[in-house]
Amino acid sequence: MKHPTVVFFGLVSIVALAACSEQSPVEPGLNANVLQTRAQPVPGSYVISFLKETSTGLQPANDVEPVGTYLVLKSEVRDNAGNRATKGTITYQYCSLRGQPAPSSACTNGSGKWTRWFSGETDPAGLLVGYGSCSTPQTIGFRFTYSGRNSGIADGVSAPRDFTWAAT
Length: 168
Hints:
This protein is α+β, with helices and mostly antiparallel strands. Helices cover 19% and strands 42% of the residues.
């Protein structure tokens, strides 16, 4: 009766050694750590900026522009080496307080909530989307989320940024 017990423990030892070896059971010759590293997306940078529509085309906008200025949101996603994202989904959000657009401080302090406004696919130029204009003075906070979907860049969120339509 001692022989079957010894054989059983011997078989368990062999399986345990195989499970702890550096060889990947999926692809011989590849270290399991290498496979895990390949699957991990790299950290990125996520920057929202503003453009305005002018008679000569789109131009960079200041954070404060006159009432009636047509605002265009622009996203920029880069990996930690500075390369632009070539794919992924951008979702623009604005800060909302009691159902009305509000400055980003309302969302960062917890009294407001980020509300989805538009989603679309990005490319190396980023995603440009016209938000529109306001006919009365107000400040609205914007941000975007990025979902990389196998782009190699980690999902992330831009820092919030406020745009103000000011009385002239």
